[in-house]
Structures are given as structure tokens and as C-alpha cells.
């Protein structure tokens, strides 16, 4: 029950933050602008959550491929870099007419526990393999909303698991980032295993 309570609490807190910040900034803004911003955020959020679920399903199945139309913004794939231990995330950027969060505030989407927020490593067999966040920053007279899907390590010694993002099939990790719009496609590439540690590789390409 504790884990379930934490998930519900995070979701509720995120909703309250968006609601309060949105109310503070949007007060006096024409109703049509408020509705447009809220609708764009909801549509983009739904796409990001759907993409996340489909990528995880493909990785867990050990095969397959797919694609998803992402019409509201641009997608960047940042593959894992084994030399620095950095990368391994997707960025989906959309333009919004009004702010929905304070600049620099990181809002968690998709249900995360308090333990998830304090550690880059999740509990193997319990935690989700990804963490989804939303931030905003000024963009001229408008605002840029940035969704991030980060695939982290899951660990329950001696077991370790991670979904690794590639941008080229069969190639070593650490390639350059790739940016595109409209559609993102992916396919299962391979599994690497070393004792109890294993990684599922997905090739993800925005077009």
C-alpha cells in the first residue's frame, strides 16, 4: 500500500502544481488561450506516455518494431554513452502559448514513487524502467514545454537491467543525438547479458 500511496501522492501533487501555477500565470488571459494551452499539454502528454509504454513493451517482448506520429513538436534521441554513463533519454519539445509550470520546475508524469525521485536507480521487479518529467522555459513571446523520457537502471542484487537507446542498428553505444519531427520509429536491436546484468537495446529514430 505504501508504494501505491506514493504513486497517487506524486500524481496528485503534480496535478496541483500545474493547476496552481497555471492559475497564477493565466489569470486574466483570454479563455481561448487558456483552453488552447491546456489542450496542447494534454495531447502531448498522452503521446509521450503512449510512446513510453510502447517502447517498454517492445523491449520486454525481446523483439518487434513500431512507430508513432508525434505531430505537436520535435523529438530528440540521446543514446547512452558508455564512456560517460550519460544520455539514454528522449526529449519531446512542444511550443505552448502560456506557462503551465514555473521555469526550472521539474514535474514527474506517469506515476513515480518518492524513492524514485531520490535515486537514479529503480528497484528491479517493482519500479518502472523509465522516469518521465516535464519542464518549461521561455521561447520568445511563447514557452517551450520539454518532456523527457529517461531510461534508468533497475537493480535488485545481483540482478541489473536497463533499456538502452541506440540510433543505429548493431552499432556501439555512444553515437550522436538525432533530432526529427512528425514521427518516431523504433525496433528491437539486441540483448546484451553479462551474468545477472543485462540490457535490451532499442534503435529509436525520429523522422
What percentage of amino acids are in beta strands? Answer: 35-45%
| Biggest β-sheet: strands ordered side by side in the sheet | 3-5-6-2-1-9-10-8-7-4
Class per helix and strand makeup: alpha+beta
State the share of residues found in helices, binned by percent.
Answer: 25-40%
Q: SSE string, helix = H, strand = E?
A: HHEEEHEEEEEEE
Instruction: Enumerate how many helices there are, as a single number.
Output: 3
Shape: globular
Describe it.
The chain is α+β, with helices and mostly antiparallel strands and 207 residues long. It has one domain. The chain contains 3 helices and 10 strands, in the order H-H-E-E-E-H-E-E-E-E-E-E-E. Strands 3-5-6-2-1-9-10-8-7-4 form a 10-stranded mixed sheet. Strand 5 and strand 6 (142-151) form a beta hairpin. The model is unreliable at 1-21 (pLDDT under 50).
